[in-house]
Give the backbone structure.
Amino acid sequence: MCIRDRFRVAIVSGRGRQDVEKLVDIPDLIYAGNHGFDIRINSENIILQEMEKYIPLVARITNQFNSKLSRIEGVIIEKKKFSVAVHYRLARDTEFSFIEREVAEVIKNNPDLRLMKGKKVFEILPRMEWDKGKALMRIMKTLGLDWKKQNIIYIGDDMTDEDAFRVVRGRGMGVLVSKTPKRSFADFYVNSVNDVKKIFEYALKV
């Protein structure tokens, strides 16, 4: 039996929704991309209407980063519909200050944008009160789920997942995936994705 046969499974990611769907390639799941700006539930797309006006701005900023940062070895500019991510995991440490300054300059000159930091990535998004936690609540509302009637488990490994852990804390269960313990709003932590697999296997047996 597959876990999706017994549970409603949602994947909430900072990646673009279509990219996530291609990577996972499992039908009938709920996919939320761009930190929840773009959600697909039961073949229906849920996009915040306010987001449409940001598309040209995000495209322009993406081009700006491509012209200034893509020449740096190890830097990857990830273009998404509603945001742009500057990945520097593979870049030399000596390049970090320059990358950080360029990102800060963009934020300074574009008050409609905000910066969110992840694991070796700068994420530039529209300045809206929206995050993975709010995306989770939108999904629950759309599905008609009640905190008191359903057991909600949220599993994540990134700093951006803390917003969802805050929402779940005290009402469900948050699980941080981390090799070492760290300060988090999650209720528990596991060491690896293999441990996450064990959680799913246990859930199917209960």
Notes: The two ends are 12 Å apart (CA to CA). The chain has a mean pLDDT of 90. The chain is about 35% helix and 25% strand. Helices lie at 17-24, 55-69, 96-109, 132-143, 162-168, 193-205.
